[in-house]
Amino acid sequence: MSKRKVKETHMPVGECISQVQMILRERFCHQRLPEKPVGMESQHKHLLELLRRTAVHGESNSVLIVGPRGSGKTMLLNCVLRELLEVKDVNKNVLPVHLNGLLQTDDRIALKEITRQLNLENVVGDKVFGSFAENLAFLLEALKKGDRSSSRPVLFILDEFDLFAHHKNQTLLYNLLDVSQSAQAPVAVIGLTCRLDVLELLEKRVKSRFSHRQIHLLSSLSFIQYLDNVRSQLSLPQDFPDTNFYDEWNDDQSVVDVLQRHYNSSKDFRSLHLLLMLALSRVSASKPAIKPTDLLEASRVCMVDSKANILHGLSILELCLIIAMKHLNDIYEGEPFNFQMVHNEFKKFLQRKSHSIHNFDKPVVIKAFEHLQQLELIKSMDSSTAKIQKEYQLMKLLLDHSQIMEALQKYPQCPTDVKQWAIVPVLET
Amino acid sequence: MFVGLLLSRYLNMSVEGQEAVTTVTPGQYILIEGNDDEYPFVAKLLKFFGDESHKQKKALVQWFLRLSEVPQNKKLLLGRSPHPQEIFYYLGRACDNEINAESILGTVDVRQDNSPDTLYVKLSWDTKAFNVLDPVLMQDTPASTPPKPALPLFPPCASPTATPVSRGPVRRALPTPDPTVMRRAGSVSDTRATMSAGKRSTLEISANDLLLCLSQGWATLMGVGATKKSELIMMDCSCLFPVGSRSYFIYLDVIFVVLLTCVPVLRLHVSSVPESLPCREQEFQDIYNFVESKVMDGTGGCMYISGVPGTGKTATIHEVIRCLQHASDMDEIPTFRFIEINGMKMTDPHQAYVQILQKLTDQKVTADHAAALLEKRFSNPAPKKETTVLLVDELDLLWTRKQNVMYNLFDWPTRRHARLVVLTIANTMDLPERIMINRVASRLGLTRMSFQPYSFKQLQQIITSRLNKVKAFEEDALQLVSRKVAALSGDARRCLDICRRATEICEHSTSHPSSAGLVRMNHVMEALDEMFSSSYITAIRCASLQEQLFLRAVIAEFRRLGLEEATFQQVFVQHRALSRVEGLQPISVSEGLAVCQRLGACRLLLLEASRLDMLQRVRLNVSQDDVLYALKAVRD
C-alpha cells in the first residue's frame, strides 16, 4: 500500500474501491489477524502466560480451548503465537506443530506429519520404527540440543481435538500428554475443540494425564458491542491513502434491524463476515459505498431457505406430486407413503379439479418422482431398496408445509387451480 | 573343587561343525556357546576339573565381555564408540565362572594392543565402570591368578607406572552416582533437594535478574518471613554474583516474588520427581521385599499391581528399582537389569517382544523372531546371567484374542533358568479374573497389590512434602483442594495440577508484587471452578437468542410428547410458535437447521446424522432443569 505522502491526495474512485475491497476482504476472509482479539482479554492473558512458561522456562503444559464454532479459538491462538514469537529468544527456540483432526485421521499419519513439521524427515530417513512410542521418543530425542540437556520446547497444536480422541487406544494423546507430565522435552499440548463434553471422551488414563486446564471462549457480547464491532470491521484504517474517501466511507449506516436479526441467530463473527462480504461485493465504482439496501439484500441471501429455492426450479408436475404428498401427510399424520398412493392422489386431482393440467403417462410421473428423490426432497424409509418394487417403496417428505406454501406463492406462473389444490385438498365423495 | 584339578590339563575335544580336533590348554582364550550364535562368549581358560562324580568335565574361566553384553544404560560410561573387536575384562562377581567343557566352541586369539582383526582387551568392567586393565591380570600364569570371586578391586587409577601408556582416553572421567545423593538416608535427601532447587531457580531466573536481587535480598526475605529454602537460594545467588549497586534495590520486591512463586510452581509440576514418596511406604516396602528376595535368590516371579490412575503405581516401582539399584551398586545384592515396557506406547501387543529384546540385547528383529529368541533366552541355562526385572505398564493393552503375549510374559518367570521378575500394572483390580483365561491367570499367581486412591490426608501430605516446607498455601486452602480431589478421584496428578493453577492465579491476582503471599481460599476456589465446573450452563447463557429459543422449543416438545426425544420437524413447529410469542420474526427451515447443528456441535444437543434433514432425532445432552435454570437467569 502506498504511503500517504501528501495529506490531500486524490485517487480515482476505481482505485479507491479496489483498495477498500482488498483491505476488507483480507479482514473478512481471515487472512490477517486482528490487532487484538476482541472480548477475550482474560483468556488471551491466560493462554499467553501458559505458553510463555513453556517457551521460556521449559515447563510442560496441556490446555484445551473450548468454544462454539466461529468463536475465535484459532484466531486467539494465532494471536498468542504471534505475540509469543515476537520475543527474541523464543522465536528461534520454539517449534510449533500444527495438527488437525480432520487431516490426521490416525496416529500414524499424525506422527508422519509431526516429523515433517519438525524437519526431521532426513534424520528419520527410511528407518523402520517398531512402535509408535519409539518413533515419538526418537522425535523428542532429536529435538535435544547437542550437548545441553535442555531441549527446544515444542508446541503441539491439535485442531479438532475431539477427533484425536477417536483414534485407536488414544495412543497419540496418551504419549503427548505423558511427555507433558514427565520430565522429558518441554512440550505444550494445546487442543482446540467445539465440544463441551470433550473430557468425557478421554480414556481414564489419558484423562488423568491431562492437566484439566480449559479455556472457554463463550462470547457474551451484547448487541451494542456487536454493533460497535460491525462498525470497526467496516471502518478503514487510518493510513488509507485517500482521506476524502476515508471520511465518506466511515459514515455510519442505519441497518440496525438487519444486524439485530443476525445477532439473534448467531453471535459469531464468521457469519457476520459472510454477510459483510456479500455486501462488500456489491460495491463498485458507480456505487462507492455500502448502502442499507445492500446489507438487506445480503441478509436476504444469507437467510434464504435452500429447500424453497429448489422448489422454484421444479416442473409443475413435480410440484403437483409434492402437493399430493403434503395432503397424504395430512391424512395419515406423517406416516410414510409410496408412489402408488401419491399417484392416486394426483389422479384424483386431475379428474376432479384440474383445468389446466393434462394427464401424464405413468412412466413420466415415475420419472418425476425419482427426480424428487434425487433432489432429496423425499427420502426412502427402507434401508434395503433392492427388494421392493419402486412403486411401493415407503417414502417420507423432507419438507415443511410452510416451505411448500411459500414456494407456491413465489413460483412463476403457477396455475391457480394448483395453488387452490394446495390449500384445499380434494375431498372424497 | 581342586580335587580333580590336574586330571586333565589337556583336553581333546572336537569343535562342532569342523572335522579338525582342537586342543585347548589352560591359559588360552576360548569361545563359549551362548545366546548369540554370531557372537559367542569369550573367556580365558584357567583350568579344567571334573565334577564330583567325575562324569562331566568342567572348566574354570575368566570371563570377557563384548560391549553388547554390557547393560544398555551403562554403555555410555565408555564415553566413546567401541571397536567391534574390543572386549572387556570382567571383574564382576555375578557370573558363575564354572562352565561345562562341552560348551567350549574353540580357541580365539586375544591381544592387549589395538589390532584390527583379532579381539583385543584394554579395559576391565566391574559392573559399574570401565577401568584400565592391570596387565598383571592378563599374564599367562593361571596359577598366579587368584580365584575370581576374591579378585581385589584395585583403585581405578592405579599407579601410573603400572598402567600401560595408552593412546586414546582410556577412562572417561565420569560422574559416577554419588552415594551421598542416594536417598535412603533422610539427611542426605535434604542436600539433594537443595541442590536441585537451587539449580532450578537459576534456570528460572536469568543471571541478570539474579544480579538485581543481590543488593539486599536479605532484608526483604526476612521481613516477609521467608523460609529456609528461599534463604538458601538467596545465599546461592549472593555467592555467585558480586554485590550490585543501590539502584537495583527497587527491583527487589519483584525478584522476591519470582523466587517465592516459581519454586512452588516448579515443585508442584507432576513431572518433578519428589525426594520421597509419602503415603506409599507400605506398598513400597512390599514391592521392595518381593523384588529383593527374587534377585537375591536368583529366582523369578510375577506381581500384579492395580489402582486407579494417579495413585503412584509406576512412581513407586521406579522408586523401588532406584533403591535396589543403589543397593546393588553398594554390593548388597547381586546386579540386575531393569526393563520397562508400556502397553500404551505400543501399536500392537506383539511389539512387546521386540521392545523387551531390544532393551535386553540391543537387537532389532521382527516380533516372531524376538519371541523365539526370548523363549530361548529364558528357558535355556546360560553361564552369564543376571536377574531381569521387567515392568509391564498398562497390562490390559497387551490383551490379544489368544492371550499369548500375556501367557508368555507370565510363563517365563516360572522357568528354572529364567531369573525373571515381572511386575505388571493395570487399572482394574479384577483384571486377571475379567479378561484372562485360566491358564494365564494361574501363571500370574496371587501376588497382588492394590493401590487405594489417596485420602484427603494423604493428598495433603503429598503436597506438603512436595513443597518441602515452603509455606505457599494457607492451611484451609490446602485442605479444600485435597478434600475435593479425594472426593472425586483421589488422583494425585489432579491435585498437583489444581495447586499449580492456584499458585499461578495467586501470582497474577496481585497487582502489587510485594503483596503476593500465600495461596488463599479464593485462589483455590477459582482454580477448582476453572477445572471442574461444567461449562454447559455458561454455554447456554452465552448462546444466541435463536439457539436459546430452540432449546426451549426442545423442552416444550419433550413435555408435549412425554418422551426425551423428538424429530427436528416437531421441534421446529414449537420453535416457530415460540418465536411468535416472543415477537420475533420466524426463521426459515434452513436457518433452523443451522441453529440446531450449532447446538449439536457443542454437544448441548445430541443429533442423528445430518443427512436425515428434517427427520433427524434430537435429544438433550444436558438435564432439562439445567437448561431451564440457565435460561431463567438470562431472562431475569
From TrEMBL, chain A:
Domain AAA+ ATPase residues, every copy: 59-220
Database matches in Pfam families: AAA_16, ORC4_C
Principal place of residence: nucleus
Taxonomy, superkingdom: Eukaryota
Record's keyword terms, sorted: ATP-binding, DNA replication, DNA-binding, Nucleotide-binding, Nucleus
Organism classification: Eukaryota, Metazoa, Chordata, Craniata, Vertebrata
Location(s) in or outside the cell: Nucleus
UniProt name for this protein: Origin recognition complex subunit 4
Family stated for the protein in its record: Belongs to the ORC4 family.
Gene3D superfamilies xrefs: P-loop containing nucleotide triphosphate hydrolases
Organism the protein comes from: Oncorhynchus tshawytscha
GO molecular function: ATP binding; DNA replication origin binding
Gene Ontology CC, one term: nuclear origin of replication recognition complex
Quaternary state and interactors: Component of ORC, a complex composed of at least 6 subunits: ORC1, ORC2, ORC3, ORC4, ORC5 and ORC6. ORC is regulated in a cell-cycle dependent manner. It is sequentially assembled at the exit from anaphase of mitosis and disassembled as cells enter S phase. Interacts with DBF4. Interacts with POLQ.
Function: Component of the origin recognition complex (ORC) that binds origins of replication.
UniProt keyword ATP-binding present: yes
Alphabetical GO biological process terms: DNA replication initiation
TrEMBL record, chain B:
Cleavable signal peptide: none
Keyword ATP-binding on entry: yes
GO molecular function: ATP binding; ATP hydrolysis activity; chromatin binding; DNA replication origin binding; metal ion binding
Localization per Swiss-Prot or TrEMBL: Nucleus
GO CC term (a single one): nuclear origin of replication recognition complex
Domain BAH, first and last residues per copy: 22-148
Main location: nucleus
GO terms of biological process kind: DNA replication initiation; mitotic DNA replication checkpoint signaling
Region (Disordered) location: 162-193
UniProt xrefs under CDD domains: Cdc6_C
Keyword Transmembrane helix applies: no
Sorted UniProt keywords: ATP-binding, DNA replication, DNA-binding, Magnesium, Metal-binding, Nucleotide-binding, Nucleus
InterPro entries named in the record: AAA+_ATPase, AAA_lid_10, ATPase_AAA_core, BAH_dom, BAH_sf, Cdc6_C, ORC1/CDC6, P-loop_NTPase
Quaternary structure, from the entry: ORC is composed of six subunits.
Family: Belongs to the ORC1 family.
UniProt function note: Component of the origin recognition complex (ORC) that binds origins of replication. DNA-binding is ATP-dependent, however specific DNA sequences that define origins of replication have not been identified so far. ORC is required to assemble the pre-replication complex necessary to initiate DNA replication.
Name assigned to this protein: Origin recognition complex subunit 1
Organism annotation: Oncorhynchus tshawytscha (Chinook salmon)
Lineage: Eukaryota, Metazoa, Chordata, Craniata, Vertebrata
Gene: ORC1
